[in-house]
Amino acid sequence: MKKNLRTASLCVHGGYEAKNGEPIEPPIIQSTTFKYDNSEEMAMLFDLKKEGYFYTRLQNPTNDVVAKKIAQLEGGVGAVLTSSGQAANFYAVFNICEAGDHIVTSNEIYGGTFNLFGVTLKKLGIDCTFVDPNDSEETIQKAFRPNTKVLFGETISNPGCAVLDIEKFARIAHNNGVPLIVDNTFATPINCRPFEWGADIVTHSTAKYLDGTASQVGGCVVDSGRFDWLAHAEKFPGLCTPDESYHGLTYAKKFGAMGYITKLVAQLMRDLGSIPAPMNSFILNLGLQSLHLRMRQHCANAQQVAEALQADERVAWVHYSGLPGDAYHQLAEKYLPNGSCGVIAFGLKGDRDTAIRFMDSLQMINIVTHVADARTCVLHPASHTHRQLTDEQLRQAGVAPDLIRLSVGIEDADDILDDIRQALNKAVG
């Protein structure tokens, strides 16, 4: 394959190259296991002395092809697909943290991730401190402890649509000798590549824009290969000391830039096994082939809708970084010059019931839990995705009680606007 393909071409051709007489689409290897002619060859696979496949729980050819494409799109050295975006964020953090450790994260993150870090990880002995990403570096620094192992943020927050100052977060993380993990689900590598701004690890919910069809649930962890684990060996014993559960391997020494990804596969996937079905990875790859085209349309439609909402006197507020007056417009111009995503956060004049009436009056636009696919959809996070959070936690996560999350699809923008206007007429008058 031609090297140094541009992003649009990688969407189509990345990860896989058909040889003479082979299928143009990566084959679906829907098999749990793989046959070998002698036991020594398989033993070498288990010792990580040879590359290959022996059990899909760890690795599968179809999954690896798609993971490679996403790694190429992000500019990383390697990637692993997971069964969901939640699994991706869990693995990304748990691969370098253990009981007694601590993480720092932006409070402007998806409600499920907020609960994962703030509640579930604590059950595993990993503490978490939430910070306002808009605070000064000095203020955020106060959250760090000697046992802090990770700084985490979202490129564009779900559902508040806040844009992360990636360079600032990278500086803070590296000044403390820890990696920056960025969830790049909403921006996708089409509109932002966090590695170019100093991030070390990227995660995705592949069920969103990467797929674009709401046909599969999955996630992905991508490593830049740039964080020097050995320079901070005392902080990361899991990577920098022998793993007695895997023949005494020291991942950072033996595998270099691939140490983090190799550990995630050989250790976490071995023990926890949150892998996608190869069929799901095949579906994901079909979506990736049009990602660059879809993101362009998502952003164009969302910009038109956001401007219309802002001009409507029945709308109390609109958060979309493409609007010149938005609080995150300047950061978006820096990190997202080609557009952010299709997600808009807004509130109506009235109360929570007003928002519910508006959504119930929509005809084409769907009320669904999902977000970021080809269809325009809507959600009231305080009542749905974030309903497990208290009012205080909602405020901490940047979710106002009246916030409506509108995920603008790739339909005709006029049809989207027509549906919004008729619903506003019924809900507000």
Structure, explained:
There is one protein chain. The protein is of the alpha/beta class. The protein has 2 domains: 9-286, Aspartate Aminotransferase, domain 2 (3-Layer(aba) Sandwich); 293-427, Alpha-Beta Complex (Aspartate Aminotransferase, domain 1), CATH 3.90.1150. The chain has helices spanning 7-13, 39-46, 61-74, 85-94, 111-123, 137-141, 166-175, 188-191, 237-240, 251-255, 259-271, 278-288, 291-311, 329-335, 352-360, 391-396, 413-427, and strands at residues 78-82, 102-106, 127-131, 148-154, 180-183, 201-205, 219-223, 315-319, 343-348, 366-367, 377-379, 404-407. The strands form 2 sheets. It has a 7-stranded mixed beta sheet, with helices on both faces. Strands 8-9-12-11-10 form a 5-stranded mixed beta sheet, covered by helices on one side. Helix 7 (166-175) links the parallel strand 4 (148-154) and strand 5 (180-183). Helix 3 packs parallel to helix 12 and helix 15 (352-360) packs across helix 17. The chain is globular. 51% of the residues are buried. The mean pLDDT is 95.
